[in-house]
Amino acid sequence: MQPLTQPFIPSSVKIRVSNLSFSYNGREILRDTSLEFPEHAITAIVGPSGSGKSTFLMTLNRLWEELPQCTMGGRVEILLNGIQQNIYAPDCGVEALRRRVGMVFQMPNPLPMSIFKNVAFPLQLAGEKDKNVIRRRVEETLQDVGLWDDVKDRLAGSALSLSGGQQQRMCMARAMILRPEILLLDEPASALDQKAAEAIEQLLVRWKQNCTILIVSHYLDQVKRIADSVVELQGGQLRNRQVATPRV
Amino acid sequence: MKGASVGRFVERAIITFSWLAGAILLTVICAVTGYLCFKGLKTMSPALIFGSTDPMSALLLRQRVFDGLFPAMAGTLLLVLMSVGWAIPIGTAAGIYLAEYAGGGTKKIFNLLFDLLAGLPSIVIGLFGFSLTLFLNRHVSKELHPCLLLSSIALAFLILPYIIRTTQIALENLPVQNRLTGLAMGATRLQNLFHVLLPQALAGMVSGVLLAIGRCAEDTAVIMLTGVVASAGVPRSILSHYEALPFYIFYISSQYADQQELATGYGAAILLLFICLFLFAVAFVIKKNLPCQVFSQR
Amino acid sequence: MTAGSERVVERLFFAAAFVSAFVTVFIFGFLVYYGLPLFSGGRFIEILSSPWAPHQGSFGIYPMIVGTLAISMLAMVFAFPLSMGCAILISVVSRGRLSKVIRKVVEAMTGIPTVVYGFVGIFLLIPLVRNVFDAGSGMCVLSASLMLAVLVSPTMILFFCDSFDRVPRSYGHAVLALGGTRIQQFLHVTLPCSWPGIVVAVTLALGRAVGDTLIALMIAGNAVQVPGSVFDSARTLTSHIALVFAADNESLEFKAIFACGVSLYLFTTILVLIIRLAVHERGKCGQVR
Question: Staple partner for B95: which of B123, B164, B295, C30, CB 3.0–4.6 Å?
């Protein structure tokens, strides 16, 4: 394995967060903070537990709007299809946004359907009707996450029968099947064993060619292995942090 | 030490009392079901339902059954189907609105009103059904009298709160994580509802419907005021009078002419008891097992 | 699915909820409208407190109100200790399998049709009451309330058990760790913490007892009188509606059944409000203690 021999070259800005404030249940999580996130890079978000890292991710796909008692202030702009867009503008469709900004959660969250349906589900939601296209894309994506050989004979079986690591990879396939421009991951490997976690890390490193990745992580060694830049969230502020040890 | 022995005595008394209460309850329930079975099981035969009529021609409505329960059973069946037919779409939709869309103040008012509707005695719903009939008769059509249609509408109001509540609770009890999964993929609220939430809430909703069916089948007070009669045969149309199993039991208990008729009453009571307990058991099993079964086959 | 049709479906959901909620108010309106001549000019209070003597032009429902209260209160007197005892048996005293079996039986009992209770009441309970107490026909307040107690007990038991189970386990473990018995745990921790649930259960059961038609109609005897003892026959508001309905239409006598309906409606409203308050209290209980 040859991890990351090429140096990290800062490219254009993918996500720009300006004057972001956020509170949940009356508790202030973000306080008037601004930061930019580069394109085609893996940015790790670290910070003390309970500092609101997961919540911060949800401000980027507007998922917090589905939770009760949240308020937000400030601007989030994302470069989508080459155009910089304010994602909270009234003319920005929230569903379209979430199709361009994928998300993977901490606990694998397969829906109670078959493996095939799980992975094909976002396509179906997006209105894809062509059975052949769906089949092809599901196969491609499952191959991409290295799950195809394990599951090709039981695509119709329940997704709940997969192991934890397999479930999480399936969820990643599900998040990637629409080929999003940004992938948000909330401690995707924290519920998995070492081997499964490494498989996921390799995937992320490969995916950053065509995707901007933000990952919340508790594990500093994991951060060191894969992150191009590190952002710390503490006391309601987002700050760029030097990557502790230079990578070889 | 004296305190301890008093405490010990109270403890003994409570334990004895609770066993006694349990024994009384079980005795009563055994007495009720046992008595019914003792008196009624021997009447269990096709003759109980079809009387002296040939079952086939009764089922095909070629011949009217005079001395069996067939018309009452047919009436109850139609009544249940129609009321549930009204109540399921409205109740499910209202439950979905309450769980997924209603905000603070609106939700409070609706909740209060549905609690009230659920608490209203069924005879009050029946009285409402009857006054609705009077109203329609005066202002819409002189042809409208108490009938199967109006009974089913009144009964639908009786079971509406059950269906609303079970739908609402089934949806609200789903973990937040499940709710976010679909939305994070870009599902609209409605897509998320139909593809993710409702399939998972289905078991709870179905068991609610089954309990509502049981409620429809056993209710006597509503239909007494809205069109049930002691003898009508199988209903010819939804605008005609009809017979129903629970009303038949009520009627026989005071108006029986001979032991033969009374025996039919016992038979009807057992039949209704079994129907209701069966629905109850099915609802219970579904609530426990359905989620895994439905989804493993998808 | 376009945003437009999304809106339409959302509106349909709202419409369904609105119609169902509106019906609740509508029912009250209809009852008042049809009973109108009896309600105008403060006559409602008069009706509630005067006797029923249609031939003398008096359509008061006082006897029925007393009958309802007598039968349902007596039923509660029987049902409360019985239910409390059974709930303690299920939640505290018995363990494992037996407790589960009893609970299943109680759950199944909630599915037994009212009319079946009434039917068995006529042919089993009434002869029993007649012979044991030598009480005339046996159709009396006592018989009806005994049968009603059987009807409402399962609901009460399940609600009691539910509110016992809601008390956090850690509270109880604290008592057990100090060397207390399970009964002491129940008396000193579980019971004080679950009183709002007990209020809810009793109120719901009272609502069922007052609202039930068939049992009183079939076995209370239905005499229009203020019962003087538990062996007297009595008529409830609910059975009055059923009986007068069967008898006559359009007269003032008939209008009186709407007064019964309105009284039952108002009574239900009060009970629902009590339950709301108790549930609200329960929400607080968990945090304070």
Answer: B164
pLDDT for residue C59 is more than 80:
no
Give the pLDDT of residue C285. Answer: 53
Instruction: Out of B15, B188, B273, name the one closest to residue C112 (CB).
Output: B273
Which DSSP helix (H) or strand (E) runs through B154? helix B148-172
Minimal C-alpha gap between B50 and chain A (Å) = 47
Give me C39's structure tokens: 């309600």
Exposure class string for C3-39: b at 16+ Cβ within 10 A, else e: eeeeeebbeebbebbeebbebbeebbebbbebbeebb
Q: Collapsing DSSP states into helix, strand and coil, what is residue C212?
A: coil
Which among C131, C123, C122, C136 has a CA at the least distance from the CA of C231? Answer: C136
**Given an 8 Å threshold on Cβ–Cβ distance, is B188 in contact with C1?**
yes
- pLDDT of res. B152: 94
Q: Please report, rounded to a whole number, the percentage of residues in chain A having pLDDT higher than 90.
A: 26
pLDDT in tens, C162-216: 888 888 877 777 777 777 788 888 888 888 888 888 999 999 999 999 999 999 9
* Predicted pLDDT of residue B292: 43
Strands A27-38 and A212-216: what pairing?
A: unpaired
Q: Mind telling me how many Å the CA of B84 is from chain A's nearest CA? A: 28
pLDDT at A240 over 80: yes
Which of A165, A36, C2, A247 is closest to A173 using CA atoms? A165
What's the pLDDT score for residue B293?
38
CB atoms within 10 A of CB B237: 9
* pLDDT surpassing 50 at residue A233: yes
| Distance, CA of C36 to CA of C43 (rounded, Å) | 10
Contact A125 B200 (CB under 8 A): no
B278 half-sphere exposure, CB direction, 13 A CA radius: 7
3-state per-residue secondary structure call for A147-202: CHHHHCCCCCCEHHHCCHHHHHHHHHHHHHCCCCCEEEEECCCCCCCHHHHHHHHH
How many angstroms separate the most distant Cα atoms in chain A? 51
Alpha helices per DSSP H over C113-168: 114-120, 126-133, 141-166
CATH code of the domain occupying A13-241:
3.40.50.300
Mark out chain A residues that contact chain B at CB-CB < 8 A.
61, 63, 66-67, 95-99, 102-103, 105, 107, 109, 111-114, 117, 121-122, 124-126, 157-158, 160, 174-175, 178
What share of residues in chain B are helix, strand, coil (percent, to 5)? 80, 0, 20
- Residue A1 pLDDT: 41
Q: Which of A236, B61, B127 lies closest to C245, judged by CA? A: B127
The mean pLDDT of chain C is 86
Of chain B residues 64-103, which have a CB less than 8 A from chain C? 89-94, 96-98, 100-102
Other Cβ atoms closer than 10 A to A12: 10
Cα C137 from Cα C144, distance rounded (Å): 13
What does the pLDDT look like over B150-173, one tens digit per residue? 999 999 999 999 999 999 999 988
State phi, psi for A45 to the nearest 5 degrees.
Answer: -115, 120
Residue B276 contacts C where some CB pair is shorter than 8 Å: yes
Q: C128 touching B, CB under 8 A?
A: no
CA neighbor of C17 nearest in space, from A143, B91, A172, A22 = B91
pLDDT level of residue A246 (50, 70, 90 thresholds): very low
Which tokens sit at C100?
């589960």
Q: What is the mean pLDDT of residues B186-192?
A: 89
- What is the spatial distance between Cα C182 and Cα C99, in angstroms, rounded to a whole number? 15
pLDDT score, position C66: 92
Set out the domains of chain C in order of their start, with CATH numbers. Answer: 45-288 (1.10.3720.10)
Q: What is the mean pLDDT of chain A?
A: 85
Per-residue pLDDT tens for B238-255?
A: 888 888 999 999 999 888
Query: Where do the structural domains in chain A lie, given as residue ranges?
Result: 13-241
